């Protein structure tokens, strides 16, 4: 128990120990606190938040005095030792199976005169938070004993963010970033399965501090990752009102999407991407996709942007990312019934249909928002195609494991709209050009339409599976012709032939009218003489059969 006693002695009389010894003692305590036995000893000791707060407060105030700013009011109301250990994402460490805006922002000349002293104070805070992070991991008792440290920590985090741009010393800058990482790890550990701590933290963390982290720390990917871990912890239990708070926070949702999908990370593994994706995975599973999508609309801006915004397209990319199965690259012959995604399927069908409804003429010619410039219209057209394709990709994934009988009204409206778009995007060049391009091995120039038709054909096949109403609707709106004309190689639409063959099987299964309709279709011409001419033969159509004859 020497480690716990050393910690108790240090907290009782920190003024009797010099800074180097304090860091040494805390480093040793942090190392020992990675063991369950140490945490259990803390649980039964007299150590609690009142033991840590005076020590933390004195160090934070000393750091603030160095930058010459007036100390902010501190509300004293929240496992690795070296830097390599802090780089990991094991925020819930285990060895077993107030108002943040009140914190003053330091001036940009902070620490210029005494960066060594500032570095010492930050290192002491870092060492202490390593101890705090470890002793509260997987320990509900210690989580409860340290709850008053949470509001203090949110205040310090706000101040630390202000110091990021003020430190011209690379070593000091690095230790500030590391300290913020460990502090967020501590906050994350404090909120794991602890509703009371979540209730204490959430008002101080969301939305102001979270927004500040997302805006000011976007290049510090581990800081974003640990902040996302805090959010993820606060979304549990599922019925928590905090989930609704997050969904309604339009700016926070936009920042999360941008930091996740618009940031080009130099590392192959981006921790921020991993954790932010998990947040949206939870929201999608809890059926908040429609609410998120509507909250990202811009219906008051203009008729054009009311149908689609760049933020909504980012959300569709995220949904496509989180609903994608491990292997969705090959068609399947059957689909199993699942009702978990009924609402999302219906919503996407309705949004796709609405996206392709022609725009109404502006009612007021003097309304500047009503007029749409050619550049804006062109940009929106690209967004429309990309977003439509994303909707089809998502629907293709969802309908591969869910029948659509319950969505007949939405689907029957969606089917002819999709068929019209597939007809509009059908290739105008000869089929032999497609085949030759596919066999040439040359790279295909990809634009926003790449993969659109193959995604649409996949959706049609899935929806038609054992669904007579969809099968009949396809016949009525020209869908069978679209599927038949898709049974060829198209380098711009990978797997379209395979998806089309599966779709034709589904539309004919148990539907004699579709079978008769397809049988009545006769071949109209023989295509592609380019390759055969090199062999000295040509194809000839006789009695619905193709034969080869010499040239």
TrEMBL record:
**Which UniProt keyword terms apply here?**
Cell cycle, Cell division
Xref: InterPro entries: ARM-like, ARM-type_fold, Ataxin-10/CTR86_families, Ataxin-10_domain
Q: Provide one Gene Ontology cellular component.
A: cytosol
| Organism ancestry | Eukaryota, Sar, Stramenopiles, Oomycota, Saprolegniomycetes
All copies of the Ataxin-10 domain together span 453-547
* PANTHER family reported in the protein's UniProt record: ATAXIN-10
* Highest rank taxon of the organism: Eukaryota
> What Pfam families does the annotation carry?
Atx10homo_assoc (PF09759)
GO terms classed as biological process:
cell division
Spell out the protein name for this chain: Ataxin-10 domain-containing protein
Q: Which organism is it from?
A: Aphanomyces astaci
């Amino acid at each position: 128990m020497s480690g716990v006693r050393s910690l108790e002695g240090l907290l009782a009389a920190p003024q009797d120990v010099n800074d180097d010894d304090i860091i040494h003692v805390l480093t040793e305590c942090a190392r020992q606190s990675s063991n369950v036995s140490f945490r259990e000893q803390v649980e039964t000791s007299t150590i609690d938040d009142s033991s840590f707060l005076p020590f933390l407060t004195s160090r934070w105030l000393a750091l603030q005095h160095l930058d010459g700013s007036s100390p902010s009011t501190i509300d004293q109301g929240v496992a690795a030792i070296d830097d390599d250990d802090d780089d990991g994402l094991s925020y819930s460490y285990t060895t077993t199976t107030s108002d943040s805006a009140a914190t003053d922002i330091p001036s940009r000349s902070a620490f210029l005169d005494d960066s060594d002293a500032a570095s010492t104070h930050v290192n002491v805070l870092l060492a202490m938070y390593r101890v705090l992070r470890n002793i509260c991991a997987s320990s509900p008792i210690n989580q409860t004993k340290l709850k008053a440290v949470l509001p203090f920590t949110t205040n310090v985090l706000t101040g630390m963010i202000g110091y990021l741009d003020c430190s011209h010393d690379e070593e000091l800058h690095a230790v500030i970033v590391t300290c913020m990482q460990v502090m967020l790890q501590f906050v994350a550990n404090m909120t794991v399965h602890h509703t009371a701590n979540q209730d204490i933290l959430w008002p101080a963390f969301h939305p102001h501090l979270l927004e500040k982290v997302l805006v000011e720390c976007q290049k510090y990917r581990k800081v974003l990752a640990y902040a996302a871990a805090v959010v993820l912890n606060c979304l549990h239990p599922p019925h928590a009102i905090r989930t609704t708070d997050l969904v309604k926070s339009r700016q926070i949702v936009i920042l999360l999407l941008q930091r996740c999908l618009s940031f080009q990370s130099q590392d192959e593994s981006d921790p921020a991407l991993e954790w932010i994706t998990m947040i949206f995975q939870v929201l999608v599973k809890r059926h908040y996709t429609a609410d998120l999508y509507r909250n990202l609309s811009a219906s008051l801006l203009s008729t054009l942007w009311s149908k689609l915004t760049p933020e909504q397209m980012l959300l569709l990319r995220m949904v496509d990312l989180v609903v994608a199965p491990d292997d969705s690259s090959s068609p399947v012959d059957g689909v199993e019934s699942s009702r978990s995604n009924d609402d999302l399927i219906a919503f996407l069908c309705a949004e796709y249909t609405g996206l392709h409804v022609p725009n109404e003429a502006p009612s007021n010619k003097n309304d500047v928002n009503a007029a749409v410039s050619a550049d804006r219209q062109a940009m929106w057209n690209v967004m429309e195609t990309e977003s439509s394709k994303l909707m089809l990709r998502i629907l293709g994934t969802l309908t591969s494991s869910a029948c659509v009988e319950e969505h007949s009204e939405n689907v029957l409206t969606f089917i002819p709209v999709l068929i019209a778009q597939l007809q509009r995007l059908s290739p105008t060049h000869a089929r032999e050009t497609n085949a030759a391009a596919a066999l040439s091995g040359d790279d295909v120039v990809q634009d926003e339409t790449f993969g659109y038709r193959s995604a649409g054909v996949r959706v049609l096949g899935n929806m038609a599976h054992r669904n007579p109403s969809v099968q009949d609707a396809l016949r009525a709106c020209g869908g069978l012709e679209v599927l038949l004309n898709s049974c060829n190689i198209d380098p711009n639409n990978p797997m379209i032939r395979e998806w089309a063959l599966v779709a034709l099987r589904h539309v004919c299964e148990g539907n004699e009218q579709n079978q008769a309709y397809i049988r009545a279709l006769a071949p109209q011409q023989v295509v592609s003489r380019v390759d055969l001419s090199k062999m000295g033969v040509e194809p000839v159509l006789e009695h619905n059969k193709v034969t080869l004859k010499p040239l």
